[in-house]
Structures are given as C-alpha cells and as structure tokens.
Specification:
Layout (H helix, E strand, L loop, with lengths): L12 H20 L3 E2 L5 E3 H9 L3 H5 L2 E4 L5 E4 L4 H10 L10 E10 L11 E10 L4 H17 L5 E7 L3 H16 L7 H9 L14 H4 L10 H16 L5 E2 L11 E9 L9 E8 L2 H4 L7 E7 H9 L10 E7 L5 H13 L4 E3 L6 H10 L2 E7 L1 H6 L1 E6 L5 E5 L3 H10 L3 H6 L9
Parallel strand pairs: 1-5, 7-8, 12-13, 12-14
Antiparallel strand pairs: 2-4, 3-4, 5-6, 6-11, 7-9, 9-10, 10-11, 14-15, 15-16
This protein binds histidyl-adenosine monophosphate (HAM).
The site of histidyl-adenosine monophosphate (HAM) has 26 residues, from strand 6, strand 10, strand 11 and helix 11.
Amino acid sequence: MYQKVKGTYDLLPKETNKWQALEKTIRNVSKIFNYDEIRTPIFENTELFHRSVGEDTDIVSKETYDFIDRGNRSNTLRPEGTAPVVRSYIENKLYADKIPIKKLYYMGPMFRYERPQKGRYRQFAQFGAEAFGSTSPLLDAEIISYAVTVIKALKIKDVEVHLNSIGDQESKTMYKKALVEYLKTDITSLCSDCQRRYVTNPLRILDCKIDKNSEFLINAPKPIDYLNQESKDHFEKLQQYLDAMEIKYVVDSSLVRGLDYYTHTVFEVDANLDTLGAQKTICGGGRYNNLVSSLGGPNIPGVGFAFGLERLMFALESINFKGAPDYLHLYLMILGEEQKADGIKMLNRCRIGGLFSDIDFLDKNLKAQFKLADNLNARFIAIYGANEKAKDVINIKDKETGKEITIDKHQLYNHIVAELMTPSKSCESCEEDSCDECE
Ligand code: HAM
C-alpha cells in the first residue's frame, strides 16, 4: 500500500468544503482591496530563488526541492510566491500597465523541505499579496490592513501584529557593520552554519533555528537603532497611518524575517491560539524596494505578505468554523429499469437548470435510498416508479416542510425552483428573505 509523502497531507471532502469557504472569504476581501489574482507556475528556474530569497537563507540553502529536467536545466518547486510574482511582473511588463500601482494576490501550494510538525509541512498552501509601484508607507499600511481585514472577516481573534523596520540599503549596511563587530566578540559560541554566515551574510545569523534564542544573539544590536533619517521617517509615517486605521500592532525590534529581499517594513501576525500548536505565525511580509531591479526589472518598489493557509485553518478551529454545509436540492429515486430513461431525462433537466441533484447507481431498495438521501442532506426527494409512469406524474417530498405532493412529471424542475424561492416559514415571520436570526 502506498502512503503519502512525509510532510504532505490529503484534503478529504469534509475539509475541502471548509477550504472553499476560506478561499471565498479571501477572494471577497481581495476584491474589496482591489487586488487581482495572478497564477504563476509551480516551478521556476532555480536561480530565481537564489537571487531573491537569498543563498544563505534556510529556505534556499536547506529546504528547496530542486530537480534537473531532461534538458539539463535546474528547476525548483517554488518555496514561496514573491519571487515568482516579481519574475512574472517583469517578464510580462506589468509595470507598463495604465494603472501605475499593480496589486496582485495568489493562492497555491509551496514546497519546503522542513521538519514536519503541526502547522509545518513540506507541501503547504499560501495566500499572498504583492503591491508594486509606490515607496509610500501608505501602501505598507494598506498591505497590513488587507491582512488584518482577512483575519477579521474570518472572525479569528487573539492575533497580534508584530512590526519592525530594517531600513533601506544604506541603513542595512550600517547595521551589518555594527552586527559584525558585535558577533566578532564571540562568534565561536554559535553553530557552524552561523560561523559560515558570519562571512557570507551575517544578517541571516539572527534567524538561525539553532541559536536564535541564545543570550548572545538576543543581546545583539537591533536594526531599528541604525535607521537613517529616511528610513526613520518611513517607519514613523507607517505607524501614523496604522494608528489612523485603528490597526493595533506592537513594534518588535528583534523581528528580521528569514528572507533576504526586505527593506524598511517587516511584519508578522501571530495568533495566540491553542489550536495552532507551536506554529503561531499565520502571516509574514514586508517591503522590498530593490527586488524588482535586482531581478532585472526597472527600479520599482514592492510590498506584500503571505499567509499559511493550513495555519489559518487551525486558527479557524478555535471558532468552530464549519464552512457551508453539504446538501442537495434533489435526490431522485428512479424505481425500475423501465423508468430509467424518463427518470434520467428529468434529472438532466434539473441539473442543466442548476439544481444540485443525484440518483442511485446501485439499484438499492426504497428504504436504503431514503437513508442515502438523508445522508446527502437532500431537501427534496422525488419518487418515480411504475405507478407514477403510468399516470405521467412524480411524487415529491419536501424534507424541510414535510409536505408531500404528486405533480405532473414535466413540472418537477419548475416546482422545486418555485419552492426554493419561497421564503422559509421562520423568515416569513420576520418578513425578511433571510436574516441572521432565522438562519
Ligand atoms: P514566509 O514567512 O516564509 O514569507 O511565509 C509566510 C507564511 O507561510 C508563514 O508565516 C507561515 O504561516 C506559512 N509557512 C511558511 N512555511 C510553512 C510550512 N513549511 N508549512 C506551513 N506553513 C508555512 C514568505 O513566504 C514571503 N514570500 C511573504 C511575503 C510576501 N513577503 C512579501 N511578500
């Protein structure tokens, strides 16, 4: 018997139902913020991730799924969505569009060879957004507001936005100098990876999974203390805008994020919920003013975020999120082979008209079919047997009202549609088509 690959999972129909509801909310909020969907390939040239996410990041140095194709090219299953979106933005010249700010979102699988645990997988799904074309901190504020609105729309509580600035390139260089000076004093106390990074990319030492919580690294200089005036102004303005939007956040000077491309703003959203296990960070993002140009595009800034969708689903468990219940409008019982031709004609008519409908394929008896209709949560059960055929009628039972009637078989579709459009009793009482209380 084959088993799924370590770090992957199956989503069975009960779960996909919830995922669809989650995705629907995400798409609605994306529309509200005027972001359009982009879909890029699952794999890209390996070099794209080396040049963007960074050679010395854990993601690129330890976690990518690389393969050589039959044409001897090195490809990588995407570990994240920003680099592919930037690649596509440049390749398709989206910057030349009539609309100067390009706002894009995406949802789909990402791949990282990490140690699997609850909330951490080797194939996982992200919902991400990227906005290009402005250095204004207002766009950073919008991106954070977009992420927070998704969380609010899903009714997830107990979240905290952690915010920091690592500054522009000049500030980052000044900070790097100070960090190297500091690390020099006790670099041998850190792991061998950190000692290598000390030479190649000292900033990455700060998110080392082994030494991250060591006293020595906790006391290291902080990027926020090395911001030049422009970077300080950007960070202050962003906070003013977030305050104006009444978005709560905490400035977290130790937040650096594990990807190389960030400048200025970095942020993460943590959900303090038991249903998440140890992986509490549901969203991470930031600004990247030099990424487009470093990948061969024009000098255009960007800012974005990505949510881990599995972690969002775990957060939703805390509010007992169920998604839309599964149901059918019609379960049609065709009794006897001679009735099948007529029966499937009626079924087809109902399906073409948009009714969620199903029938039996196993020649089950009446009792078993009633049970199946129940399990399928069918609102109407229609019976078409030899007696009905003889009179050109069909028998219909409405499970919601308990009403049972026999009508002209040609009226099956019209009858169900008319009944579905009639407001239910409880709603009639409040004289609304549908209201929260009655639902
Ligand atoms: P990231 O922090 O690497 O950022 O990932 C974003 C989110 O994806 C994390 O906060 C987490 O919720 C989820 N995630 C990451 N790895 C895993 C995993 N192995 N299993 C389950 N969930 C995971 C980025 O990917 C950036 N591209 C975000 C960004 C967009 N920055 C600017 N624009």
